[in-house]
Specification:
The chain has 2 domains: 201 residues, inorganic pyrophosphatase (n-terminal core) (Alpha-Beta Complex), CATH 3.90.1640; 127 residues, Diaminopimelate Epimerase, Chain A, domain 1 (Roll), CATH 3.10.310. The chain has 12 helices and 12 strands. The strands form 2 sheets. The chain has a 6-stranded parallel β-sheet with strand order 3-2-1-4-5-6. It has a 6-stranded mixed β-sheet with strand order 7-8-9-10-12-11. Bound molecules: manganese (II) ion.
């Protein structure tokens, strides 16, 4: 994505005053950091901006949002009845439906909706979509946009973006990390944010139940015959039993990539009436392609798909079938 696209993104945004920024459901630090930083930046330009999400911000992310930019949809509708939305910006996803059931219904009627994202996109409706698949994180795109808007970084703008990139690159270890990523990181660090604190605030603030569930899940990790595929599963009952939440388990899958022979890491996570399959690789096997074959999508190193789970459906069968298909993909890609 060239500079001209940042310019047209800037031109688009500057046309409107009343703006809502949202992101995908169960948002990670990339979605949240991107919307928080963009919101604070646009407020510096005098825009009337709010971040509105399907759910309220989890306590553990509050430090990224010093101006309390994020409101749940429910709260927003109660407290901003008169807000005349002119533009909706959706970050870190390219599908309206991913913003959540209530949120996508709320957004759909608005005339001006744009997407800022780094996930591969099939280019239908292109024009409203500002996609840079080369960016390591949506936070990197937002950083470039803020620079294009001519707004200098300060610590409040920098910390959410730094954290977004940290999380989405699994601490700078994915193939999407480029010199552009590090150039931006250098500019963010020049504001004085501290790397150790930023790291510990996001990775080092887990609760004991997070550790216990992780131990339980990793203990039951399985691999196929030649150890090229490793997978873990989290059932709904386990979330309740360990008093943890979906979002807290995002990074569990990364632990599988330390296995010596592993090419593809999989995590099957039971959500409300569905199973989310997340896929990771070191980048040499394109898990985005596998996810696409299974009805989802994503990057070469990080992708996902979702299986609906009608009542009485066999979870184990979904897992077995998926592993079989992934194995077939690996065999075929060798030929
Ligand atoms: Mn992202």
């Amino acid at each position: 994505m060239g500079e001209d696209i940042y310019q047209s993104l800037k031109d688009t945004i500057l046309k409107y005053n009343n703006i809502i920024i949202t992101t995908h459901i169960v948002p990670d630090a990339d979605g949240l950091g991107s919307q928080i930083s963009l919101c604070m930046a646009l407020r510096k330009l005098g825009k009337n901006v709010h971040c509105v999400n399907e759910e309220a911000l989890l306590d553990r992310y509050e430090y990224l949002d010093p101006e309390k930019t994020i409101l749940s949809l429910e709260k927003f509708l109660k407290t901003h009845k008169e807000f005349k939305t002119e533009l909706v910006i959706i970050v870190d996803t390219n599908k309206n439906s991913r913003t959540g059931l209530k949120m996508s219904q709320f957004i759909s009627p608005f005339a001006n909706i744009i997407y800022i994202d780094h996930h591969p996109y099939d280019r239908k409706n292109f024009g409203q979509h500002f996609i840079d698949v080369a960016a390591a994180a949506t936070g990197q795109i937002i950083g470039s946009l803020i620079k294009t808007l001519g707004i200098p970084f300060d610590q409040k703008l920098a910390l959410p973006l730094y954290t977004a990139i940290l999380i989405d690159t699994n601490t700078f270890r994915y193939p999407t990390v480029s010199s552009n990523t590090h150039t931006l990181i250098a500019e963010l660090l020049e504001t004085g944010i501290r790397t150790t604190k930023a790291y510990n605030d996001i990775y080092g603030a887990k609760k004991l139940h997070h550790m216990h569930l992780l131990g339980h899940i990793l203990k039951n990790c399985q691999t196929n015959k030649d150890n090229s595929i490793a997978w873990i599963c989290i059932n709904k009952e386990e979330f309740d039993q360990y008093k943890t939440d979906l979002e807290d388990t995002h990074a569990y899958i990364n632990n599988l990539l330390v296995l010596e022979e592993v090419k593809i890491a999989c995590m099957f996570r039971e959500e409300d009436k569905r199973i989310k399959l997340s896929l990771r690789s070191h980048g040499d096997v394109d898990v985005g392609e596998i996810a696409q074959e299974l009805g989802g999508g994503g990057h070469a190193h990080s992708a996902a798909t979702v299986f609906e789970l009608p009542p009485g459906h066999d979870k184990q069968k979904i897992i077995e079938n998926s592993i079989k298909k992934i194995e077939e993909y690996l065999i075929n890609s060798k030929n």
